[in-house]
UniProtKB/TrEMBL annotation:
SUPFAM superfamilies according to UniProt: ACT-like (SSF55021), Formate/glycerate dehydrogenase catalytic domain-like (SSF52283), HAD-like (SSF56784)
Gene Ontology annotations of biological process type: L-serine biosynthetic process
A single Gene Ontology CC term: cytoplasm
Assigned keywords, A-Z: Amino-acid biosynthesis, Hydrolase, Magnesium, Metal-binding, Serine biosynthesis
Protein name: phosphoserine phosphatase
Length: 431
């Protein structure tokens, strides 16, 4: 059965509401522009939350725009820079699924088509409203015969299309949820990368903080191996706000707490600690998803290096108490998660890796005993894997092998690598 992907445009494919942005362009010289901006935004949100009809909202906003075709050209240039990052990095998905990806929006083709065209989305699979212009190219209205200009327009359109297959809907607004409510789509994903509307998320089948998340849960090809929004970063103790900001901006799911609460033990992936915060050994031993610890101080006596080594947890700390380390340490943690770098780690071999491009990076952490690299490379040889580059460093009890390979390989290779004698942790990266 064929799969179809129905994707909203405003605040989903792009980070912004296009008509709101058009208003900021067209009303630049209007002395009452701030009041008009607020009214346009109010009408947008009322419709998105399902509190007024879409047609009422649309008509009201267009009357306030005072826009023309020149303004639309400026809007298109602006929107091309505002494509949501997770859609932008997954261009290859759209190329591969151009036959079954549809943009369905209450926005307008005049600005949607040129923005999505570079993503291999076909013109005849873009469903949106169209403007009406007067002889001076001023926007005076829209085609009211288009079902997308009406309340419940997306439902009416899909009924007309009669798509046969499994249909997934991705969007941020009430009109997107209506597709699920109508029974026309299989699953509705509330997209929250740009805005989260409670009236939508509480009714969704799944909340997707990024397009990466949608692709991950549906086992579809994607640009990154694992969505960072799924990696929990716990921040404990006195940690400057800039540190949490760095990790949040990088896409991790952040929790800020006074203590390392027991309920986070099994799920925490990154742990950033203020000075003098102690991690109990029994908790550390059960933190099976924990990949890296950042400590804003000297971690000796507060974190067991032996347990971290046994579990393959990379530790970065601040032995000299430098103020810049409130920024430096979270960046080192993110660099390990994103690229595999262990430079300036307290307990791991210090390795700076080249940026990963068009390859899969396999990170193998193991006990520093003879023969591990030979076992790993035997697996690559037996599976005819093309190795692009390989790095090995050891430090004390830890060995760290990083191998970049081409992305075409049998997934059984990953299982075999995890089973190598003396393996501590194994991870795959691609982006």
């Amino acid at each position: 059965m064929k799969n179809y992907y129905i994707i909203d445009f405003d605040s989903t494919f792009t980070q912004v509401e296009a008509l709101d942005e058009l208003a900021r362009i067209s009303l630049t010289n209007n002395p009452d522009r701030e009041k008009i901006y607020e009214e346009i935004e109010r009408l947008t949100n009322l419709a998105m939350d399902g509190k007024i009809s879409f047609r009422e909202s649309l008509a009201g906003r267009i009357l306030l725009l005072q826009a023309n075709k020149t303004h639309l050209d400026l809007l298109v240039s602006h929107l091309k820079k505002k494509v949501s990052p997770s859609f932008n990095r997954n261009r290859s998905f759209f190329k591969e699924h151009s036959e079954n990806t549809l943009i369905v929006s209450g926005g307008f083709k005049e600005f949607i088509t040129p923005v999505v065209a570079p993503y291999h989305i076909k013109k005849d699979q873009i469903y949106a409203n169209t403007f009406l212009f007067d002889e001076d190219d001023l926007i005076i209205g829209y085609d009211m015969d288009n079902p997308l200009s009406e309340e419940g327009g997306k439902v009416k359109l899909l009924k007309q299309l009669k798509l046969e297959g499994k249909i997934y809907g991705i969007g941020d607004g009430y009109s997107d949820f209506q597709l699920k409510e109508s029974g026309l789509i299989e699953t509705f994903y509330a997209f929250t990368e740009n805005i989260s509307r409670t009236s939508v998320t509480e009714k969704a089948d799944h909340i997707t903080p990024s397009f990466d998340e949608f692709l991950y849960v549906n086992d579809l090809p994607r640009a990154i191996s694992y969505p960072k929004n799924r990696i929990l970063c716990l921040i404990v103790g006195e940690v400057p706000e800039i540190a949490s900001h760095i990790l949040k901006r990088d896409g991790f799911s952040i929790r800020i707490k006074d203590t390392f609460e027991e309920k986070y033990t099994k799920d925490v992936g990154l742990l950033l600690l203020g000075n003098h915060v102690r991690v109990p050994n029994e908790q550390l031993e059960r933190a099976d998803k924990l990949k890296t610890i950042g400590y804003l101080g000297d971690c000796r006596g507060y974190i067991s290096k032996e347990i971290c080594n046994e579990k393959g947890i990379v530790v970065f700390d601040d032995k000299k108490g430098k103020s810049r380390n409130a920024e430096f340490i979270p960046r080192r943690m993110a660099s390990f998660i994103n690229n595999g770098d262990t430079d300036m780690s307290r307990n791991f071999p210090n390795l700076i890796l080249p940026k990963l491009t068009k390859a899969h990076r396999l990170l193998h952490i193991h006990k520093n005993v003879p023969g591990v690299l030979a076992q790993i490379n035997t697996i690559y040889a037996e599976n005819e894997i093309n190795i692009l580059s390989q790095f090995l460093m050891t430090r004390g009890e830890i060995g760290y092998v990083v191998t970049d390979i081409q992305d075409a390989y049998d997934k059984k290779v990953l299982r075999q690598l995890k089973q190598v004698d003396n393996t501590i942790k194994f991870r795959i990266l691609y982006k």
